[in-house]
Amino acid sequence: MAEQFPGRLLDLLEAAADRPVFEHGDRAVTGRQLLGAVRRVTRGLRDRGVRPGDGVALLLGVGPEAFAAVVAAHTVGARVVGVRPGLTEQQRGHLLADTAFTVTDGPGTDAGPGQVLALDDLLSAPDDGLRPTVAARGRDIARLIHTSGSTGVPKACAQTYAAMTAAWALRPDAWPPAVRELAARLDRFLVFGTLASQVMMDYGLLTLAAGGTLVTAERPGFPDSIVRHRATASVITVARLTQLVRSQRKEPADLGSLRALMVSGSPLEPGRLREAAEVLGPVVFHGYGQTETGMISMATPGDVPGSLGVPPVGLEVRDDSGRPVPPGTDGEVFVRTAAQAEGYWREPALSAEVFVDGWVRTRDLGRLDAEGRLWLTGRARDVIIVNANVYYAGPVERLLATHPSVAEAYVVAAPDDDTGEAVHAFVVPTAGHVPDLTELRALVTAELEEAGAPTRLTVIEEVPVTPAGKPDKRQLAARAGSC
What we know:
Keywords: Ligase
Helix content: 25-40%
Radius of gyration: 23 Å
Structural class: alpha/beta
Number of strands: 25
CATH superfamily of the largest domain: ANL, N-terminal domain
Number of helices: 15
Organism: Streptomyces olivaceus
InterPro entries: AMP-bd_C, AMP-bd_C_sf, AMP-binding_CS, AMP-dep_synth/lig_dom, ANL_N_sf, ATP-dep_AMP-bd_enzyme
Largest sheet: 7 strands, mixed
CATH topology of the largest domain: Rossmann fold
Distance between the termini: 59 Å
Domain AMP-binding enzyme C-terminal: 396-470
Strand order of the largest sheet: 6-5-3-4-7-8-17
Pfam families: AMP-binding, AMP-binding_C
């Protein structure tokens, strides 16, 4: 049986030897040094009783030691849960409920219900100099990748070690053409935020497999971080790309090092893509994927604006009855990828809705053209995408409707230059009351996340309806877009 993840990564770090693979502040960390950190943390975890299948939560930054801790947790075969910043207390408690251990590089006093392990203590374990033994078993859950939590608590996509091993990032022989073109530009990949981000971690692995260096930015900002760190590549949201283009038009910075910006999380309009290419050059790669599937398709700078390139995965566009439709016909996109999750952790009913006979129902609408390129045309789900995070309308609407000034509430996506999309609330007031946006935002923020709270409010006498008598949210979205 082939060795499971992270076996290839350990081999890659060993082969890197004295080549810098990580830059953090004024430190350059070589492959040999990073592998040594992985060995020490692996030993520390095993000495403290962490075994294959144990739940291990990671509350970490993005430095080399944090990266080593992620790799070590997978080396011992743990079920890894990355905890991102900005969660409510309820959401964080939900994430940590099934974990026996929490690794933190902060105070960690309220980290979780299990044993709290300080990363510095784990790094102090002795180093035997031997390649760590990978204990992961293919059928075991390797990581729980959480969605935004906009339904109240985050859904956890359960990815097995077999799926992580089959993923494309560490397998140059399996790179599709678009990924191969991107990999050649990842000399210095800017890492920021949190390694709990699936996108950040997967592109980081791709960078190492391509022979590049991960460069951390403690206070990320575009274009400053690109200039300061001489970055050749980074991940960027549509909103940040718009801001960068605007900034470059007004006061150009020297972005001579930049070769790739990977846009992910939300659709990129062809007009914005053309403007970005005009100002920044041919550097924009537009990825399409989901937490449940990983990458589905990617458009390179040379692809037709608006398309998402030719998907290198199994993909079907289906009609309402579930039958595949011919090229040029719109339908719902179904995919299957080597690295897809096997379902939602401990949510069999929800899993059955989305994971169907080996396929993942994306709930996105699109079509394939005659050349096999993918075009997205809409959503089959009622969501707003804020800063690349998905927020479902239903939970927000239900919360708003509990306010004494609100009789009915409907939320839609409104274009926003800062966040890509923003939550626009249309409310029918109760008699004698005047809804207040500040109060409604506070209500949603307390239960969900601040980004899912409405930033705009329109009071209406009644909601428009479709011929079938249902609320016509398309009309509301059109009003929100024109505001």
